Each structure stands twice: as structure tokens, then as C-alpha cells.
Amino acid sequence: MSTADVKSNAQQRMTKSIDTLKADLSKVRTGRAHVGILDHVQVDYYGNPTPINQVANLTLIDARTIGVTPFEKKMGAAIEKAIREADLGLNPATQGDTIRVPTPALTEERRKEMVKLVKSEGEDAKIAIRNIRRDANEQLKKLVKDKAISEDEERRGSDEIQKLTDKFIADVDKLLAEKEKEVLTV
After folding, report:
1. Residue 68: what are its φ and ψ, rounded to 5°?
2. What is the model's pLDDT at position 61?
3. Measured between alpha carbons, how far is 106 from 109 in angstroms, rounded to an integer?
4. What distance in Å separates the CA atoms of residue 114 and residue 76, rounded to the nearest whole number?
5. CB neighbours (10 Å) of residue 16?
6. Residue 94: pLDDT above 70?
7. Side-chain half-sphere of 68: how many Cα atoms within 13 Å?
8. What is the pLDDT of residue 186?
9. Which domains are delineated in the chain?
10. pLDDT in tens, 110-120
């Protein structure tokens, strides 16, 4: 193992942390409706918890309403129940074959709660990135101890990993600023 291996491993893990943050931020809803809100809803499909997008077609009816059309007509009640119990603050209503899911407008207080949630998600991502930096630096110290690399190489490697960490933390800050602006936009 070399300093390049340690650095590339750290970079891959930090990229995964950013991807996880993006996925977590996509769950935080803004005033607009989007079908991604329902991504994590599990429907009881013949005794098996199944993602909603595998038992129904999800569409946007308008800016504030999601349309859910079950593939099987008898699944309507189970889908409606799953959306209600998902704790997303949504109240679905069946209208013929389609379940309409209106997304309520966010109050100023709710928007501020969402911003706190976004900041919390961002802080978790920063902690994960810093932990990856620590692990990489420990790997470099172990390589020096095992005499696989010199102390100069370890110092250069630590500097490179710090630059990588700074870059990814800046990416987290940028993502948070964008999401905060999106949440606070009325």
C-alpha cells in the first residue's frame, strides 16, 4: 500500500459521504411537490414491505400534488395507508383509480425546522469526512511505522488528505447553502 492508495481510498469514501448527504437532503421537502418524497414509503404487498414505486406509478399532477396510480386496483387502500403512516405529514385522498397526495404549504416555523434538519445532516456529513481523514492519517502513520514509506512521504500524504478534506467540506457547505435557500424560498 502506498500514499496514493490511501489517498484514493479516502477520496472514494468521502465521495460516498457526499452522495449520502445528497440523498438525505433530497428527502427534506420544500414547498413544491416531487415524487422523491415518497421514495422511502414501503407498502405491504401480499405480506412483503415493497417500495411504493414498485406497486404504483408516481406522477406530478401539479406543483403541489403528487398522483399515485396503483398497478393493481385493490392495492389503493394499502398504498394510502402506507403514505399516511410514513410520517411525512401528507394526507392522501383517493379519487377514482388515482390517489392524490397534496403537499401542504410550509409555514415559516416549519421552514426554520427544515433548515435545522438540513444543517444537522450537513454536520453529520462533515463528521464522516473528518473521520475518513483521521483513518487515512492513521494508515499513513502505520505505513511509516512498517517502514513502507518515509516520514516526508507521510507528511506530503497528510497534506494531500487535508486538501481533499477541505475540498469535500467546502462541497458540503455549498450543498447546504443551496438546500437552505431552496427551503426558505416561499
Report:
1. -120, 115
2. 87
3. 8
4. 30
5. 12
6. yes
7. 36
8. 64
9. 3-27+107-184 (1.10.132.20), 35-102 (3.30.1360.40)
10. 788 888 888 98
pLDDT band at 31 (very low <50, low <70, confident <90, very high): low
Task: Look up residue 103 and give its three cell numbers.
Answer: 403537499
Confidence check: pLDDT of 46 > 70? yes
Q: Is 141 exposed, middle or buried (0-12, 13-18, 19+ CB in 10 A)?
A: middle
Return the residue matching grid coordinates 443551496. Answer: 178
Q: Measured between alpha carbons, how far is residue 77 from residues 70, 94, 145 in Å?
A: 10, 8, 63
DSSP collapsed to 3 states, the chain: CCHHHHHHHHHHHHHHHHHHHHHHHHHCCCCCCCHHHHCCCEEEECCEEEEHHHCEEEEEEECCEEEEEECCHHHHHHHHHHHHHCCCCCCCEEECCEEEEECCCCCHHHHHHHHHHHHHHHHHHHHHHHHHHHHHHHHHHHHHHCCCCCHHHHHHHHHHHHHHHHHHHHHHHHHHHHHHHHHHCC
Entry pTM: 0.69
